[in-house]
Amino acid sequence: MEELETRSGAGKGLWSKGWLYTRERIKKEKRLRSWPDPSDPVLPQIRTENGEDMMATTLDPDAPGRQQRVLEKEDRFYEKAVWVACWEMLRRGTPWQDIRAWCEERNEGWRAVAPFAVESKHSSSNSAWRKMCHLASDSECANEYEAAVYGLLSGNSKAVEKVCRSVDDHLFAYYTTTLTREFELYLHTNFPDRVPAMTALRRSTSANEGLTNRATAQEAFNNLIMRLRQNSATKEESAQPLKIIEHYLLNNDAENLVYTTGMAASDLDSMRGGEETESVIERIRKAPAQLLPESQVVLDPAALRIAAHIYVVTRAIDPMEPQAETVGAEENVLVSYLQALRAQGRRDYAAMYSSRMRHDKYVAVLGNLLQDVSGASQQKEMLTLMSDDYGLDVVAIFDEQVRLILQKYFTLRREEVPSRPLETLEDYAGEQTRLFPGRRIREDFMPAEMDEGDILLCRGLEWFRLLPGEWKVTFSTLGLGMRMALVSGHVSGAMLLARTFPFQSISEHKTVEVLGKVVNIMDKNSPIQPPPGSQEAMQLEVLRQQSRTYYELEQLVLAILALADWVSVERAYSTTPRAASTPPAELKAAKADLDEAVAPLLQPGFLREAADDSEAVDLKWIRICYIPEILLAYQCALYSAGPMISRDAYIELMDLSTTIADESTGLTELFVQSGRMRELVDGFAQAGKMMLVMKGVNGKKFRSKGREGKDLSLWETGGGNAGVTNGDDGVGIGLAPAADADAD
């Protein structure tokens, strides 16, 4: 408009002047020549200022069309500006009365009457007036905007489409002209006697296109959308996400919008690559060569939000089970929206949207999404939403979450599994031969840091602690997580689980809901024990069986932790020169804790009761890889404890050898299968030599209380102290005094 006003030379302040330049030119010509009467068929020959065209000689509105002549150039721009203003007001929905008033204010009274019908008490339908507008839009108009105004008022879509620039313009023109034509057709069909006869005259083809059924209407609209997508002027705008949604809604095809958008989500995920099992988007087909236009809806957060809520609304309207061939694609829309919310850190609505999916689908989606939820308060809130508010299968969701974490971080191919996931020992060639038998426990054998998988697994298992009751599934999943961590070599993860989920704490927490009281079911020395054979006793035994695997795996990990505690105290003590003195209580406590932690590993049934074949394979592998390593380190610890704490440690070594040799424990078989029997035998041989050395140093025999028949003389290889020397000059470093021996 501003450009037209400028080019017309009128500006904003001269809208009421009309055809100013043409009028002035006519006045000038009248002063210079004789002027014929209006009835004279011969018209004056006047050219425009530039001399290119013949100029109209009268100022009545239809003069240019009637005389087949033009106005001055500036007046043509002015004329176009007026019609553009009328068109834009109609386009914006300005009431006809306001448009008429606008024309009258600018001394364009004829425009106030011609395009906008005067209300008639005798013809409320204005059918004759619309017919005249239709004829005017097909005749010679001053410009395309004049034709568009008449065409819009009469239902002539061809005239209106010429001035449409945007998709919205085309849609406005389509619906306005279609409604006008349908109204005319309705009048002509149902009230032929009340429609003026002239309306039955010539009608354009478009005016006779009655959209009498939905199929015809949808076909016409689809053809329009196809034209808009192919038109260079509207092609780019038509591909915008919100326009795509608009087209489906205007076509009353919301369900197809959801389905097609879901297919686009599938295509995008297929093109992304990766294993299908890693994605919660259902891949319905192979990646196409070209993406659907609806893929833009998936990629646009605002449009995706609209599509997702359209799915929710359509499912609420039609509660029947969706068709199997379409439900996967439709749910992809909701899954994509949940992923968008996840990327924004908005997980509060996950349970609500997931409740609109099938069971298997929401289990997979939430199992993936809940990995981000951390903190007890957030987990409790989410658990309440899922279980209480929306009735979701939380056990299946939590199981799926743990499965996904284990699959991603803890599943290794057989060739990738480390043969020695735990390496506690290192060679020792120092001078303290009485403390270390050629090797010692490494100070740094514990993993330094937790990796992402360890943290996620711990977070995933935390849900089971919060889950009311569910004893069996809780300990089954805890056991699965612990054994997978050990099998895959994630010792750090196993340590984290043992510290985060101590068996005693979980048992006491869960038994409140299972038994109605706080009980550590593995504490058989508890003063509160039910009578044997009672219902409660049998129930406790069932609970023990269901939780045994995790309990014993925790004991294995606690033994490793006890080794770490021992070596930290022992190394601080052994590396500091000191006179012979009573060992510190800290060292004795570390030794006692280590003895207590290793004791369960020596029991005959340790880690030998599996719930299924898969667990049996894993437990056997864990026994072979971890127990020999732990016992060899324990052997070194006892060797060092002899001179540092008490020579009774050597007697404990004898007990250890006896226990390992016991067939019921199966420990000898573990050392053979792990190929570490020679290390075990060498360790006991070194202990035998050290026992002779210690006996020679103190010069007296002793007998340990409670160990009749198990004194140092059993290990003698010759008479007296022949050939045995101390081997150290001066005072020994960290040696236990002779007074520590049990004198007779």
UniProtKB/TrEMBL annotation:
<dbReference type="Pfam" id="PF04121">
    <property type="entry name" value="Nup84_Nup100"/>
</dbReference>
<dbReference type="GO" id="GO:0006406">
    <property type="term" value="P:mRNA export from nucleus"/>
</dbReference>
<dbReference type="GO" id="GO:0017056">
    <property type="term" value="F:structural constituent of nuclear pore"/>
</dbReference>
<dbReference type="GO" id="GO:0000973">
    <property type="term" value="P:post-transcriptional tethering of RNA polymerase II gene DNA at nuclear periphery"/>
</dbReference>
<keyword id="KW-0509">mRNA transport</keyword>
<comment type="subunit">
    <text>Part of the nuclear pore complex (NPC).</text>
</comment>
<comment type="function">
    <text>Functions as a component of the nuclear pore complex (NPC).</text>
</comment>
<comment type="similarity">
    <text>Belongs to the nucleoporin Nup84/Nup107 family.</text>
</comment>
<keyword id="KW-0653">Protein transport</keyword>
<dbReference type="GO" id="GO:0006606">
    <property type="term" value="P:protein import into nucleus"/>
</dbReference>
<dbReference type="InterPro" id="IPR007252">
    <property type="entry name" value="Nup84/Nup107"/>
</dbReference>
<dbReference type="GO" id="GO:0031080">
    <property type="term" value="C:nuclear pore outer ring"/>
</dbReference>
<keyword id="KW-0906">Nuclear pore complex</keyword>
<dbReference type="GO" id="GO:0031965">
    <property type="term" value="C:nuclear membrane"/>
</dbReference>
<keyword id="KW-0539">Nucleus</keyword>
<protein>
    <recommendedName>
        <fullName>Nuclear pore complex protein</fullName>
    </recommendedName>
</protein>
<keyword id="KW-0813">Transport</keyword>
<keyword id="KW-0472">Membrane</keyword>
<keyword id="KW-0811">Translocation</keyword>
